[in-house]
User: Fold these one by one.
Assistant:
Number 1:
Amino acid sequence: MSEVFNNDVNHFLQLNDVVKQANSWGGGNTLRTESNKIIKAFDATVIQPSLNMDLGNSLVANKKLIEVSMKYGQQMAESVFNLKKI
């Protein structure tokens, strides 16, 4: 499951980079879907857990593990974005 997720994230980052490059060429260049919708680039930040953090197994879920994972994810996001709790 994590390999599929990692592949999806990498695919998104690559396509997002291509869209940003097309937009930077000027001249009104836009990439469009097959149904003619404009494809937009996003400012994205990928936040990964520390390699030494054990977040459990994707096949095992319980309330405590989910709470620990969510708290850890919030702490990582706050550290990346230098957010303060409101």
Number 2:
Amino acid sequence: MPGLFSALGLLSTDLVFTRNRSAYVRLSPEAADRINVIYEEMERDLRRNLDDPGKALTVRSFDGHLAGQTWETPFVSVPAGRITGESIRKMIEAFHIEYAKRWGNKFEHMPVVSATYRTQAVLAMDKVKYEKWAERRKGKVAAERTMKLRFLAEQDVDVCEYERDSLYFGDIIIGPAIIREPMSTTLIMSGQTGTVGELGEIIIERSSQQ
């Protein structure tokens, strides 16, 4: 029931209210007071629109770039509380870490320039609880049948077909394979494996044998 599952996900999703403000500022201890004012003003505005501000978790971030660049690295974490020179140091450090994760390089000698400041008020919602799937007690996962798929390659591809309801937590399916259920179909390509998680989710990854 993919549609119902998506609806449950929406009901479980935290409510997030966001304020953004553009401000091109070279990050340095001298900029702390200006940045602090920006966050305080945005957070006051957010609190005015919440029925119970005390229940909200405040999350700060900023989008920035290295001096001279034209593209930004988004959602860099910002410390809570009053912005100080030490806060700026942590923001710069967090930027370089996020930059390396996204772009594969670090240029810590270059100044960091902020472009957008962001603050979020996060209201936690009750979560739907799902039953854990049982583990397979004996034997291995077995295909229901084999079939041929066309148009995935120049020639027809032989695949194994499995029924979702027959799977157990920890089962591993090696592609190419198809997993069927009443209202959806999952395709695991050649060179991939699908692992059934403890809640019945299927985690598809590249095979370690490739």
Number 3:
Amino acid sequence: MTFDVMKGIGILLVITDHFFNWNHPILGRVINSFHMPLFFIIAGYFSRPFTTIEDAKRCIRKYAKRLLPAFVLTQVFIILWDVLMAVSESKGWGPVIRESLTLFWADPHGPQTPWGQLSIGVVWFLLALFLAKCALLFISRLGGYAIPISILLALGAVMLYRVFPYSIWCISIGFTALPFVTLGWWFRTHIVPKWVIVSCIGCWIAALCFSHLVMYDFEWGCFPLDFLGACGGTFCVLLLSRLICSKTAPAARLFATLGIWSLAIMCFHDIETHCHIGNHVMALIPVSFPVWTKYLFRYVLTIAVAAIAVRLPLIKKVFA
């Protein structure tokens, strides 16, 4: 249950950052310093090396079946929404063309086109995780060399991005996530000394003061301080999750449920931020609301829609 609680806390931090960092930049700085590495580390913890080539193929098919349908479903829904807006509100077909191209380009920060920038938004995580887990299958066979090799590949991806500022199908950003996935895999079979945990938490505090990490934007202010700091933030969430599980069973069940729904919440959060469904709903109410109320409504709506989706017969298969 601890890992589900961690994912529950993590997904709440994701949408909190996106909805409220505009008014609380320090909050956004803290969350960005570790919230995506947290998910990569957890995913790595449940990864394993392959035994045969056929086993590797089975693992890759399993990862693809788990992650790619959610990405495609999210993008297709956004395209259908843009089609609806083009037909009902005569907003033109530019957004439809842009999102259709984005589905195949699949880049967090794609090129500018006559129809706008090709950006897949929040669901970049799904493609990056798919690539990182597939890469881990092979470098994990190198044993103790896996971690330094994953770091070298990540640094290479960051430098490549400086020359070629695109990450088609999240290839570059997937390699920057690889060290976190590799560390998660390593943590499963090794006991982490307390001094390492304390040191990483110290690095996290230092990174918050003197550096800046945003994986989505390829912003690594000071490597390896950012990297170790992200691990420190993840350790803090781990300790908090253990405390919640041991002291408050109702809260543990709530966060664990959100963790189980985290994939659906992430996808519907991406849909909501693109389509502004919450704003459309609130526009039907003849009352003037403060800005923070609108964001809070969108926040709650995202979780509510995801909770409904995971119970629908066809859609729940994508997120189960």
Number 4:
Amino acid sequence: TSKEVIMPFNLDLLAQAKVLVMGDIMLDSYLWGDVGRISPEAPVPVVRVKEKSLVLGGAGNVAANLAGLGCPVAVIGVLGPDEAGERLKTMLDEKGVQNLLLTDTSRITTTKTRVMAQRQQLLRLDEEFSEVFPGDLQTQLENLFEKEVRNCKAVVLSDYGKGMFQTPGMCQNIIKLCRKLNIPVLVDPKGDNWKRYKGATCITPNTAELELVTGALACEGEKTMVSSARSVRKRFDLDWLLVTRGHKGMCLVGQDEKPVMISARAREVFDVSGAGDTVIAGLAAGLAAGLPFVKATELSNTAAGVVVGKLGTQPINKAELNTCLRMNLSEGKKHGPFKLVNLDAAKIQVQAWRTSGEKVIFTNGCYDLLHPGHIDLLHQARSLGDRLVVGLNTDASVKRLKGENRPILFEQDRGAILSALGCVDLVVLFDEDTPLDLIKALRPDILVKGADYSPEEVVGRKEVESYGGKVTLVPLLEGYSTTGITNKVLSVNK
């Protein structure tokens, strides 16, 4: 059993690890609202929609995870000639993903719309066209893949059953080329016809997907699951088979008779949407960066442990994973939800809180050497509402504001310490000198600063007050400052 997180690992190595993602790309749409009554037309709840959000789904989410980790990534897929397709292209561009998408006039862009209320999913609406691809489109895709794959260190095939890999010969042609070029090819499977994946480096099913292929109850017990996994690996000529088992962790089966059992990173599970995408993205990133297969699997397991603590389909990012690795979360410990998030994740979470009627408070700072004055201010801020979001300056931002010798603690460490406070609900890094862009994006109900500021000096005051929000100045606990503590330590050491 693997019990240790794989630190130390330099995530900066991922910047040299280009990955090619090919598969069914889709747009995930969320409608956020609340339910106050039952429809008079039918016995169904009436959702009063308050906000909407869009995220990348399917192969797009795999690519978003890789981009979030800092990997150069390209994605090959097919869109329809519609508004959803154009929006997908824009979202990929915003995340720095190389767009190699083709447009097929006979199809529509796959879109999944989820209706959310009281922090629960009430309904999902799917718009899709999942017929197999015509011959000319298949040829275009294979030619595009052959041209691009030579620049990559790993390949992910993301099969969501929307037609691409159901097209006869497509999957096998790609796998054989990758084998010839000695490039690992990882498959996120769909359905029970795995003949098309034969010869892949690794397939990453969950237990239900494994059972679909074996016909056995793979989740009945560990021995049955391992036996099923070994049988499937041999039948389809795979180097590895990685079975994801939810709260039970992962089982990695290779040519060695002894399987590798990897425990789940104990963390509050809020939403498993997109966790499989994070697993295969983390695995591909690790392999592309040169990690051995078991270590790359541990990296993917740690990444998945972060995203299940988020709401909706949200990718991992480098800061989140780095913090998690630095904390060295070990097996058997209970940890709360992951609080250090990027802006996209924060926006979705704040939307969910707001539509549930919760009041969101925002404050910000460098928090370099957290002291009682900081903690007192944060507790005061949290008492003003239901959720406290803390904007945290990145290392680069602190250095510009405080000088070359600061920060004393790295941003991941400062974020981890803030996340450990019960009064803090989210920590969001920002790289600018002020949190103005962050405030505009999150639109908090209350903006909090210390009483050493005047209302006119508070960044974001006009913006918050413009939509009915409040700015509150709270008294400071006297006698504490990071600079004062730093100078005291330096004087003692002289």
